[in-house]
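Kindly review these tokens for lecture notes.

. . .
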Amino acid sequence: MHAVVGIWTTDVARRDEQRRLLTEEIVPLVCRQPGFVSGFWMDDPETGKSHTTIIFASRATAISFRALVESRTRQDAQAGVTSDILTTVAVVAAAHHPGGTP
């Protein structure tokens, strides 16, 4: 498995618009991508940064998804979101709570 990991700067004044865009457009788009396994969208109120980790079945599907994200930079900027870091990495270990969710 491979992951596309991102750190994002967000305009906190546009938080409601960004959350709507995330839940109505981005999450469904990500879930439809070939090789999609799981995704996590996280927010750090102390730093004002958002973090994403999207897991794919293969390096090729992760790289393809990263290219899709990079092609959307103008749309993201219009919603007050800019990419600080976007990288593709190999997943070398994983752990899950035995009951699914803690």
Residues 2-90 form a domain with the Alpha-Beta Plaits fold (CATH 3.30.70.100). DSSP finds three helices and four strands in the chain. The CA atoms of residues 35 and 78 lie 28 Å apart.
